[in-house]
Amino acid sequence: MISVLILTKNEEQDLPRCLESVRWSDDVHVYDSYSTDGTLEIAEAAGARVTQREFDDWSSHQNWGLANIPFRDPWVLYVDADERVTPELAASIRRAVENPGNKVAFRIRRRDFWGESWLKHVQASSYYMRLFRPEKMRYERLVNPVSIVDGPVSELEGYLDHHPFSKGMSHWVNRHNAYSSLEAQQILLNRENNQQFSAIQAFMAKDRNQRRFHQKELFYRLPARPLIKFLLLYLGKRGFLDGRAGLDYAILQSFYESMIVLKTKELTGKSAAFDRAKEARSEIPSQASPSGGIPEGSHAHSGSND
After folding, report:
1. Which of 105, 174, 190, 291 is least surrounded, with the fewest CB atoms within 10 Å of its CB?
2. Is pTM beyond 0.85 here?
3. Are residues 144 and 191 in the same domain?
4. 146 and 235 in one domain?
5. Does a structural domain hold residue 209?
């Protein structure tokens, strides 16, 4: 009745507990990006089916998986290897698919943990679209993708427990270093495509995904974004109630935002330099000799944007 999709890349540490939490499903798929550790052996030993594909970006990777992995059941539960399905959530999932009504997807509330401490207040977002009919779901954005659902959605009771620091601080920093690069690319891509932004829609849009898009675009236009993010999480969402873990998490998220800001500036500068070089090259023919060659004494250079 319910297939499970787990995305992996070198997840031998976290995958066993994730698989244990979805043992009630007899159609588990591990969607792997060519792990070099024991991930595949763990998956196969647990009876999971493995599909491999090189990771390019989040939405492309997820969309390919939904379109090409042979799910046996009409409903798919999507989880990451560092997440655990609680018994209460598993029961809620079974009830939902037994009587979904006209719903084609369900949002699930996630709890993020710092060690054994639940980040109850400082977490930026709580609900994620994780249970759905695959033919009704697609993703957009290079990173932190937006779930686009073709049909009515609802919410489930129970928690999906997330352990983002299970592999240590270095792993978290390295992963968010990669995320920040994709976020910077996404910001420039949105600008190049002239995607329309509305401050009103950021607060008034009825569709949650549309509201999230406009909120992100509004946030990207604010000055001092890293400081604003820290204040929003630590004071606005009362992250101070989560103790030292709440403070540390808010600082890390502010640092992550700083990386996005700096990388966006870097990419913008490189893009501007490329445009100037392209414009300069386009002017060369007008300076050429009547025979079409470059005037004697002129030199064509191929520069880099280091």
Report:
1. 291
2. no
3. no
4. no
5. yes
